[in-house]
Design a protein that fits this description.
Blueprint: E1 5-14, H1 24-29, H2 35-45, E2 53-61, E3 66-70, H3 75-83, E4 98-101, H4 102-112, H5 121-134, E5 137-140
Helix pairs in contact: 3-4, 4-5
Length: 141
């Protein structure tokens, strides 16, 4: 018999940096999950991804056990690293914060392909380019 799902939780946590403090503790504590157990498993699974923000999808079951699925880093973070900027433009329609090449966009699309809602690489590239434009980054040939 399948386990009964109590809750689904989505968090973005720095890789290898999960602690019982908020947001992890407050999100998991209300469902009765062993917070330190999650932190140890998450930190072990993301030890090689230091410096990244890792989206994680946690499924909490009625018997207080849990499973989690790690996702790839957010597109905005990958674009900021490629463009070498701290943050996007505050007014993207009028300001340009930086630029990325189509080769960079394609590389990011290949990394993000498992998590994107796209059938092929061309569609994924358009999604990433749209994110870049909304951050105030110029996509150059």
């Amino acid at each position: 018999m399948a386990k009964k799902i109590k809750a689904n939780i989505k968090l973005q946590i720095p890789a290898g940096g999960a602690t019982p403090a908020p947001p992890v503790g407050s999100a998991l504590g209300q469902h009765g999950v062993a917070i330190m157990d999650f932190c140890k498993k998450f930190n072990a699974a993301t030890a090689k991804r230091k410096g990244e923000t890792v989206p994680v999808f946690i499924t909490v079951y009625a018997d207080r056990t849990f499973d989690f699925v790690l996702k790839t880093a957010p597109v905005s973070e990958l674009l900021r690293k490629k463009a070498n900027v701290k943050k996007g433009a505050s007014n993207p329609s009028k300001e340009v914060a930086g630029s990325v090449s189509w080769a960079d966009v394609e590389e990011i699309a290949k990394v993000k392909m498992p998590d994107l809602n796209a059938y092929n690489l061309e569609a994924a590239k358009k999604i990433v380019a749209g994110s870049a434009r909304s951050m105030g980054l110029e996509v150059k040939d």
